[in-house]
Every structure is written in structure tokens, then in C-alpha cells.
Amino acid sequence: MRPVTPVPSVPPAALPAVETLLKRTLGERRIALVAWRLLVLQIAHPVVAAGMDRYSTYRAHPWRRIEHTMESGSRLFFAGPEERRLEVARLQRTHRRIQGTDAAGRAYSAQDPEVRGWVMVTLYESMTAMRELSGHPLSPAELDVLYAEFLDVCAALGIPREVLPGSAAEVPAHVERTVREVLEYGPEVRHMLHGLLREAPVPRRLGRLAPAWPLLRVVIARTVTALTVSDLPPAWHERFGTSRGPAGAALSWTLHHGLRHAMALAPDRVRYRRRSVSGAPAPARRAVPRARSGGDARPARLEAFFRRVLDQTGNGRVDSADLQAMVHTMCWRLELPAEREDEVYAAFEDWWARLREAADSDGDGGVDCREFVSAMLAGVDRDPAYLERGLVPAVRALFRAADRDGSGYLGADEYRLLFGGPRVHPAELNDGFRELDADGDGRVEEAEFVAAFCDFFTARTDSTAGTGLLGRA
Questions:
Q1: Distance CA 421, CA 333 (A)
Q2: Tell me, what's the pLDDT at 428?
Q3: Which residues of 248-265 are buried (b: 16+ CB within 10 A; e: fewer)?
Q4: At what angle do helices 213-231 and 35-43 cross, to 10 degrees?
Q5: In terms of pTM, does the model score above 0.70?
Q6: Under a CB-based contact definition with an 8 Å cutoff, are residues 277 and 218 in contact?
Q7: Is residue 367 classed as helix, strand or coil in its secondary structure?
Q8: Residues sharing a CB contact under 8 Å with residue 187, sequence separation 6 or more, in sequence order
Q9: 108 by DSSP, 3-state: which?
Q10: Residue 162 phi, psi dihedral angles, 5° rounding
Q11: Which DSSP string do the residues of 336-354 spell out, in sequence order?
Q12: To the nearest whole number, what is the mean pLDDT of the chain?
């Protein structure tokens, strides 16, 4: 283990009165200027790239993925010890499932200590880069304080000290060495730089500007790409043959210096983002396409279910990685202990095995939308007990996981935790709860919960409660 450089004392006036230097730096809104740069440095690591290609939902659900990342960061860096402990446990449960072999035949695992160390080092390095690019770098003493606070978070995450730079002064050389010797300019990096924002769906927060999104995203994508490429470390440009260019350098200087001076004049509520630790956001329920009057509504619902729920990686087909990502999203909100989480994963993996057997007509190991819709319709039309042998056990496992107090029913709070989140209006949650509460007793029992899901897949019209699980048109 490398020796830790003693942290010099810093005059009290140099540090915020209440918050740590790390919280103060990471909490600035202008950290967004280096966010894409951070992602590129992380994804360029071949292990991270392989895990994202196989398991990540960022292609299909980029905004939800960003929300989850920000929420996780809030819990790790801004919450108290108990919230941090829960988040660390949740991340550990997630990462133990991310492993495999990449396209080049190399084994990878998200639990690799050196990879985890690199992901964290890029976060620290991005905070220092934000200050440097704005013309107001941290002093050596401040860097030591920031790094010591950063190491506390790494220790909580269980990252071995020996995989991290020994001191703040060693970070630049560590980053340069990793860029030159380990990172790769692969398809995931190219997509992050040149593709993701150009094809991203409209953000829900855009409101009345949503119709202008196709034009806005082109402008945003070009700006983010130019800024990110310009801000990448010199070693990156030398290794991969990219260049800042005069236009990129001018854009970077203008944005970083301009925002620094603007934020210095702004009140704290504008300068710093709000730090919520209330639980991971859930995607808002969106309207399911409605069938024409007198028609069979099931195909439209099944197609919506495939696109919005099953196809988590956004590649137009579903495989075991999509099912794992779907279950992860649900377990993320419920904060289940490992054994309960394993039960939910196992139940959905069993459903996936049955679904693949029935729907994978071309034998390619995955299921596309056409195969899914055809198989589900054929199954429920042919056999009234079709769902009982696959989907229903998975739904029951989900219900029991959401039934946190073991009462045998979901109260309104448990229902909100499972289906809700900051982005879902309370009135919509209340309406959904009342629809599932078939007998009107103020709680949703397991039979009502299962019946709603069965209705979603079997009802030919949209008049029953379960058909509104993804929202009402």
C-alpha cells in the first residue's frame, strides 16, 4: 500500500463554514460542463465499455439513467452515514451481476477493484478540471483536502487504497498513464460523443418546448461534443489523434470562464443544485397507445410494454441483460436486502427462460418486438393458464418484495414506493392505486395486484383497471 501524504492544514477561511470542500465543489451546477467529459473517460475503459454495452439502459432510457446516477451520487456524497451505507450496499448488489466476456474475448467484471478505482478517480479529476478550465484552480492545500474527503467515500465503497493514487499530487500522472496504457476509443465512446444526444428522446422537463426538441438536440449535441473533445486531457489527444482546435478552445474558455463569473454573482440556491436523497426517481407513467374503437387493444399495449419496460438497452431486442436491468430498476427503489433481491431476479429470470423458449422463433438468443407480441397473444389465446406458468410467479415475487412489512397487502405508501418517484404526480399515483384496489378497501392485496397484470396482457378492451398500468391515454 502506498503511503498517504499528510494533509496540510488549511486556514478556516479557505473552507466553507458548513459543508466540506468536496460537497461544495461537486454540488456546483457548473460541474455539468465536465459531466460528458467524465463519462467519456469512464466509458473508454474497456471493462466499463463492455458492461455498458451489455447491461446499461443508457441508450433506451438516457434521462432515467442520468437521474439514477445523480441520485446515487447524492446518496454517496451528500447524505448521512446511513444513507451512504444503504447506497453502497445497493451498488454492490448491482455490480456483482455485471460480468461476462467482451467482443474481444476478454473477461470483465464490475467488481474489479482497479476499474472501480478508475471510475472514482475520474470523478475527482473532473472536479479539479472544472476549476482549472475556469481559470480558478484549487491550491495544492485545497487539492489535498479535497482528495482526503474523496478517499473517505472510496473507503466507504470498499475500494482498496492501493489501487488509488497515493496523494492528490499523484492523480495527474495516474490519469495520464491510464489514458495512454489502458483506455480505448471504442464504439461506446464514439456513441457517447457523437450519437447519444443526437438520438435521445425528448426530456420530460422540456414541457412546451418539446416540439422543438429535434432541432434543439442537434444544437446541444454539437455543443457538448465540441466542448467535451476540447476539454479532454492532452494525453487523450496524443493517444487517439483528436484535437482541441481553435473553435473548441474558444468555446471551452467562454463557457467555463463565463459560467464561473456568472455563478459567483448568483445566490447559493442558483449556484448549487438541490441535493435530494429521497429515493431513486421512477419514470413517469406514459400513455399507452389506444386501439381503435371495437379493435383488440392488446397488440398496442404489448408493443408499449416491450419498448418501455422490457427493452431496457434500447437495441430493439430483449435478452437476459434487459431483464436484469428491468429488475434492477425496481429493486433500486425498494432497497431490498440481498436475499430478497435474489428472489425477484430468480423469478424474472425464470419468466425470461420461458418467454425465450416460446418467442425466440429465429433462435438468435433474443426476442424482438414482433416475436414478443406474437408469442404472448398466441399463449394467452391458446391457454388460459399461460401467464400462471411464467409471468404470474414473477409478479408475485415483485408484490412480496414491495410488501415491506409482510402484511399481505400494499398500502398506499408501499404502492408509491414501487410505482412512484419525484417525477410522477401524486394524483396519478392515487388514481392508479384506486384502480388496482378492486374492492375499495384502501389496500391492494396480492390477488388484486396479480389480476391487474393479467388484465394488462389479456383484456381486449381498455375498460379494466389493469390495462392502465403504463398510464391512461
A1: 9
A2: 66
A3: beebbeebbeebbeebee
A4: 70
A5: no
A6: no
A7: strand
A8: 53
A9: strand
A10: -70, -15
A11: --HHHHHHHHHHHHHHHHH
A12: 83
